[in-house]
Design brief:
This protein is an alpha+beta fold. It folds into two domains: 39 residues; 146 residues, Trna Endonuclease, Chain: A, domain 1 (3-Layer(aba) Sandwich), CATH 3.40.1350. Helices cover 34% and strands 23% of the residues. The strands form three sheets. The chain has a five-stranded mixed β-sheet with strand order 1-2-3-6-7. Strands 4-5-10 form a three-stranded antiparallel β-sheet, with no helix packed on it. A two-stranded antiparallel ribbon has the order 8-9. The chain is globular.
Length: 195
């Protein structure tokens, strides 16, 4: 029995070592493809599926004073503000459905880790025009339950539906975000950003 346990521990160490090595190899591979021009980093590549999330999150974060950004894939939140609150940002582009419906669907995924949720609503990923920014505290009562206690929230793009969220809209952050995006768009050239 002892031999089996020792053998299993040895195998586990080998696997852990292989995982660490594969991470280093992956990073070297990415750096090589960026250097040789085969791929661009996501922040410089509007065709990358992660590009919009990267851009929207980073520009919304810049509307805060001294944010502390978390590493990619941090569970539950994207950054901390200077007061120490955990903030999860969700940026979405306007969706259109066949039945003349348009709106934004923000995934919340029952996230009880974040203290605040910032939802930024954009027109599309090409013009990069923010239309709304809402801030919700995780325990705000929305549609009969705490904000975090839902898989997602849908906000329809009609004046009547937007009134429901008027008290959560932060126009000062929206104005700052529009200003930052306009500067970004002026400096944007294909395959190269000044972020």
């Amino acid at each position: 029995m002892r031999r089996i346990l020792l053998c299993l521990k040895s195998k586990q160490k080998e696997m852990d070592s292989a995982i660490l090595d594969s991470g280093k190899i992956g990073k070297k591979n990415r750096e090589w493809t960026h250097k040789t021009g085969r791929n661009f980093p996501k922040e410089d590549n509007p065709d990358c599926s992660s590009w919009f999330g990267y851009i929207s999150e980073n520009y919304v974060m810049k509307t805060f004073e001294d944010p502390i950004q978390m590493p990619p894939c941090n569970p539950g939140f994207d950054w901390k503000c200077k007061k120490g609150h955990k903030i999860d940002h969700k940026g979405r582009c306007l969706e259109y459905k066949v039945s003349n419906w348009s709106g934004w669907r923000f995934p919340i995924k029952w996230n009880n880790i974040a203290d605040y949720f910032i939802l930024s609503a954009w027109d599309n990923r090409y013009s990069l025009t923010p239309l709304h920014v809402w801030i919700f505290y995780k325990n705000d009562m929305i549609r009969g339950r705490k904000f975090w206690r839902r898989d997602s929230i849908v906000i329809t793009n009609t004046s009547l539906a937007l009134i429901e969220f008027k008290e959560y809209e932060v126009t000062d952050r929206l104005d700052k975000l529009k200003e930052l995006c306009n500067i970004y768009k002026k400096n944007l050239t294909f395959g190269c950003s000044t972020m």
